[in-house]
Write a structure and sequence with these properties.
Length: 430
C-alpha cells in the first residue's frame, strides 16, 4: 500500500498546499496513507484536523495518520517529503546580524553567501537524523526535499546517504512570470528551458507552446525597454554572458560579489515574514474552531510539483517537470557529473530523469563550478565538524573578501548555533 510521509507538515504553506495537491490526484492515489509529522505538538494536531477535514470533504480517499515522532509512522513509506528547518527566521536573523556586523556585504544569505553556510551547518544534522531513520525503516523510499539550502541538502543526500532523492523549488516560475509580464503571454503558453544550480539557473530557450516560436529576442527587447531599475543584475549578466538568469535579482544576488551595488543590503524582511507565520497559525486555529474557512489559504492546486511527481511514479504516466534538483550525470556536460544541478526532467515509474542540455557558456559554467565547490565543502564541514573545511568554504565564497573577517565570522556563527551543529566543531577545534 502506498504511504507518503510529510515531515515538517506544521509549516502551513507547505503542509496545507501539499495535502490539497495530493487530493487533486485522489483517484490515482486512492487508498494511500498520508503520515503527517511535525515536532510541534500544536501544529501537528492542527494539521491533522485540517487534513482529516479536507480528506472527508474529498470523499475520504486517503488514510490519515500522524505523530510528533516520525519513527512511529514512516515505516514502509514510498515517499518521504522533507521541509523542516530549525527556527528558520530566528536563526537566519541571527546570521544576518553577525555577518553584516562584520562588514560582509551579503544580500540575502540562505542559498548563497556565509548565511548559506550557517543554514547548511545546522540543517544537515537534523536531516541526517531523518535520513538514518528512513534508511532503516523505509530504505526504498524516495526523498523529496524542500528544505533550504536546496542544492546543499541534495548534495548531502547524494554523497552521504543511500537514498533516492529529488529536490524541488518553485523559483523557476519567477522566470515564467517575468517573461509572461513583459510579453503579455499567459504563463501556461510558455515553454522555458533553464538549467544551472538552484536559484542560479539560466534560460537556454524561451518558446511559445504549440508554435515553437522563439521568444528570446522579443523578451530581451522588452527587458531593455524597461526602466534601469528593472532586474539590473540580470540584465547586466545577460549582456555579459549571453543568457538571462531565471530566479530574479533577489535570489541571484546571493551568489555574486558585486550584487550589493544594485541590490543593496536591505535583505529579508524578517518582521513581516514572522508576522505571516503568526497569521497562518491563527488561520489554522480558526479552521479548527470553525471561525475560518479552508478556502482562505487553499485555492486548488498550488503549482508545486510534489503530487505531480508522486502520481507520475505511481501511475507510470510520464510527467514533464520544468525543474528538478538531481545528480548531474552529464545533463549539463561542462559541469561536474557528480554534482547536483537543477534541470528540466521527466518523471516516470522508474524515477526522475534530467534532460540533456547543451553546455553553458564557459563564463557561467565557471561561476557555477565555484559555487558547487563551496556547496560541497559546506556539506563536508556539516558532516565532519571540520573548522578548516568550513573556513575553506567561506574563503571560496565570492561574497567574502577578507581572511580575518572569514575567521571571525565563522567562530561567531559556530558559537551562535552550537546547540544545532555537529559537536565535532568543538572537539579539538580542528
Amino acid at each position: 500500500m502506498l504511504k507518503i510521509s510529510l515531515i515538517g507538515v506544521g509549516s502551513v504553506c507547505f503542509g496545507a498546499s501539499t495535502i490539497a495537491d495530493l487530493l487533486y490526484y485522489k483517484e490515482k492515489l486512492h487508498g494511500a496513507t498520508l503520515a503527517l509529522v511535525d515536532i510541534d505538538p500544536e501544529k501537528q494536531e492542527l494539521m491533522m484536523f485540517l487534513a482529516d477535514k479536507m480528506n472527508r470533504e474529498a470523499g475520504e480517499p486517503f488514510h490519515i495518520i500522524g505523530s510528533c515522532d516520525r519513527r512511529e509512522v514512516i515505516a514502509g513509506s514510498k515517499f518521504v517529503v522533507t521541509s523542516p528547518a530549525i527556527l528558520r527566521e530566528e536563526l537566519w536573523k541571527k546570521d544576518w546580524d553577525i555577518i553584516h556586523g562584520a562588514g560582509i556585504r551579503q544580500t540575502y544569505g540562505e542559498n548563497g553567501g556565509p548565511g548559506s553556510l550557517s543554514h547548511t551547518l545546522r540543517n544537515i544534522p537534523m536531516l541526517a537524523d531523518i535520513c538514518r531513520d528512513v534508511e532503516e525503516l523505509a530504505p526504498d523510499a524516495w526523498m523529496i526535499n524542500f528544505t533550504n539550502p536546496e542544492a546543499r541538502i541534495c548534495t548531502y543526500f547524494d554523497r552521504y546517504t543511500s537514498l533516492k532523492f529529488v529536490g524541488l523549488c518553485h523559483q523557476i516560475y519567477e522566470g515564467y512570470r517575468c517573461v509572461s509580464k513583459l510579453l503579455s503571454i499567459p504563463q501556461e503558453e510558455l515553454d522555458i528551458k533553464a538549467a544551472g544550480i538552484n536559484h542560479f539557473t539560466w534560460m537556454y530557450d524561451i518558446r511559445r507552446k504549440g508554435t515553437a516560436e522563439d521568444l528570446y529576442p522579443a523578451f530581451i527587447r522588452a527587458v531593455d525597454a524597461m526602466p534601469p531599475s528593472f532586474e539590473p543584475i540580470s540584465r547586466q549578466l545577460y549582456h555579459t554572458y549571453g543568457m538571462f538568469p531565471t530566479a530574479g535579482d533577489h535570489h541571484l544576488a546571493e551568489f555574486l560579489s558585486f550584487a550589493w551595488e544594485k541590490q543593496g543590503l536591505a535583505g529579508r524582511d524578517f518582521a513581516s515574514t514572522v508576522d505571516d507565520k503568526v497569521q497562518a497559525l491563527a488561520w489554522l486555529r480558526g479552521v479548527k474552531e470553525g471561525t475560518r474557512a479552508i478556502e482562505e489559504k487553499v485555492h486548488g492546486k498550488s503549482g508545486e510539483a510534489i503530487a505531480d511527481i508522486i502520481a507520475a511514479m505511481e501511475t507510470g504516466n510520464n510527467s514533464y517537470q520544468v525543474s528538478v534538483d538531481i545528480r548531474n550525470n552529464g545533463c549539463i556536460p561542462n559541469l561536474p557529473h557528480d554534482a547536483v544541478v537543477e534541470v528540466p526532467g521527466i518523471v516516470s515509474s522508474d524515477g526522475v530523469h534530467g534532460l540533456a542540455m547543451p553546455p553553458l557558456p564557459e563564463g557561467i559554467a565557471c561561476m557555477i563550478r565555484q559555487q558547487m565547490t563551496v556547496q560541497q565543502l559546506s556539506v563536508e564541514a556539516a558532516v565532519t565538524g571540520s573548522r578548516k573545511t568550513a573556513l575553506q568554504a567561506l574563503l571560496l565564497d565570492p561574497v567574502v573578501d577578507s581572511f580575518d573577517t572569514a575567521q571571525t565570522v565563522l567562530e561567531q556563527l559556530l558559537e551562535a548555533h552550537r546547540e544545532y551543529i555537529s559537536p565535532k566543531f568543538f572537539n579539538g577545534k580542528s
